[in-house]
Every structure is written in C-alpha cells, then in structure tokens.
C-alpha cells in the first residue's frame, strides 16, 4: 500500500444512541481506490458520513494525512481536501449543469472558471449539456455530474456512496469507468458499493464490513479470490 492519505482508527459512531460502527479501523492509500463492501446495515455509509463530518466519532480518530478531522464540520472538511458524493440527492435538479458545477466551487478562493473548463474537457457529456437542467439527465449522467461537482474543489480524497445504485448494468459499467477516470486525475477514492464484485473489480484494496467493523481487508483481487469472503459476502464461489 502507498502512504496513507486517510486513516480511520478505532472509531465508534452512530445515530443518536444507536451505535453502528464498533472500533472500526481502515486506511486509504494515496492514489488508491478502496471499496467498502458488506451486507445491508453493516455500517458502510456510516463510515463515509463519519469521515465527512456528518456524524461525529464517539471514540477514535479520523485523519487526513497527519491532520485530525474527526468531528470537523463538512464545509471545513471540503476546504481541506475531502469531497463527498452521496447516493441520493447528489445534484440540484432545477439548476443547469453549469450552475451545479459552480455551486460545487462556492468555497474556492479563485480559479473557478479554469477548473470548470477542465472538467468539461474531462467529461464531454457535461459540456454537451451544460445549459440543460440536471433533472433532464439520465441516472448515469447525473452520477457523472455529481462526481464532477465534487471535483470542483480539487479534493485529495473523494468519498463515493453507492455509485451504481439503481442503474442498469450497462450504465453502471460506464459509471465505474468514470470512477476510474476520477482516480486517474490523482484523486484517492473511498467507495461504498453494494455490487461487491464490480466495486472490488476496479479497486486496489477492499474492506468487508459486518456489524460495524472490518471483518476482512486486503488487496481487492485477493478478496475476490477468497472462498470464505465469496461464500459469506459476495453471493457465490470465488474466481478460483
């Protein structure tokens, strides 16, 4: 693994008095895609919300590089280099593509026009539709817009929750290609994905969560080839 850019260490977290994460620890290496998989209710999305400041860790540490960010407000976390793409309601349907992108840069100190222009170059489908309202986009196109809007702040780490949710297989494949494109831009990605095989298939490393803690971790290919992981969490035989 490369040097860690994001470290979650011994975190307990949850909603109100309901604990979801139990002494959870994981790391994201610089330049990596890491995928969180596991059954419904395992705490996958809670990990992202805790890292992004939507939930405060009850115990433990969340660090971006050497900086403690656990408990910081999301707007401050965005400014220091972490972006977040939620599973739902991740674009403003009544705004145009261009307005959505510019909303993503409200905390920038400058250079907004330049970074938006670069994103249009990277994602031509957005350039073609820049004056259209986001609500007119297909599900896959909305995900591309959500990725691009999060990239306006040029984050070091992007948190992505269920990018393929509700998409047809062919569209999901295109969205996974776009996740890899974002990673190729130099952004480290921590991704939750219910389609475990496809998510691990584009990832460098993976973490299998169950009951709020990490049960298995390792290189993504190794997890895909592990008979026990496959039987318990991937719905069938390993690739061996």
From TrEMBL:
Looking up CDD domains in the UniProt record yields:
ABC_TM1139_LivF_branched (cd03224)
Superkingdom assignment: Archaea
InterPro entries xrefs: AAA+_ATPase, ABC_transporter-like_ATP-bd, ABC_transporter-like_CS, BCAA_Transport_ATP-bd_LivF, P-loop_NTPase
Q: What Gene3D superfamilies does the database record attribute to this sequence?
A: P-loop containing nucleotide triphosphate hydrolases
Pfam families attached to this UniProt entry: ABC_tran
GO BP annotations, alphabetical order:
L-amino acid transport
Keywords from the UniProt entry: Amino-acid transport, ATP-binding, Nucleotide-binding, Transport
Q: Which residues form the ABC transporter domain?
A: 6-236
Coiled coil spans? none
Q: Which GO terms describe its molecular function?
A: ATP binding; ATP hydrolysis activity; branched-chain amino acid transmembrane transporter activity
Q: Spell out the family assignment given in the record's similarity comment.
A: Belongs to the ABC transporter superfamily.
Give the protein name, as stated in the record. ABC transporter ATP-binding protein
Q: What is the lineage of its organism?
A: Archaea, Methanobacteriati, Methanobacteriota, Stenosarchaea group, Halobacteria
């Amino acid at each position: 693994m490369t040097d860690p850019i994001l470290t979650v260490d011994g975190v307990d977290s949850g909603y109100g008095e309901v604990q979801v994460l139990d002494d959870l620890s994981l790391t994201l290496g610089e330049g990596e895609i890491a995928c969180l998989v596991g059954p419904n209710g395992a705490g996958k999305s809670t990990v992202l919300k805790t890292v992004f400041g939507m939930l405060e860790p009850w115990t433990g540490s969340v660090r971006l590089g050497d900086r403690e960010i656990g408990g910081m407000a999301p707007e401050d976390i965005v400014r220091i280099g972490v972006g977040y793409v939620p599973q739902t309601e991740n674009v403003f349907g009544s705004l145009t593509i261009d307005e959505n992108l510019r909303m993503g840069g409200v905390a920038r100190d400058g250079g907004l026009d330049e970074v938006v222009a670069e994103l249009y170059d990277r994602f031509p489908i957005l350039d073609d539709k820049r004056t259209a309202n986001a609500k007119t986009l297909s599900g896959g196109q909305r995900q591309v817009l959500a990725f691009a809007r999060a990239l306006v702040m040029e984050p070091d780490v992007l948190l992505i929750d269920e990018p393929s949710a509700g998409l047809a297989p062919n569209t999901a494949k295109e969205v996974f290609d776009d996740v890899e494109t974002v990673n190729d831009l130099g952004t480290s990605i921590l991704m939750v994905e219910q389609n475990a095989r496809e998510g691990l298939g584009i990832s460098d490393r993976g973490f299998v969560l169950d009951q709020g803690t990490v049960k298995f971790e390792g290189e993504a290919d190794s997890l895909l080839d592990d008979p026990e992981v496959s039987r318990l969490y991937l719905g069938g035989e390993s690739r061996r």
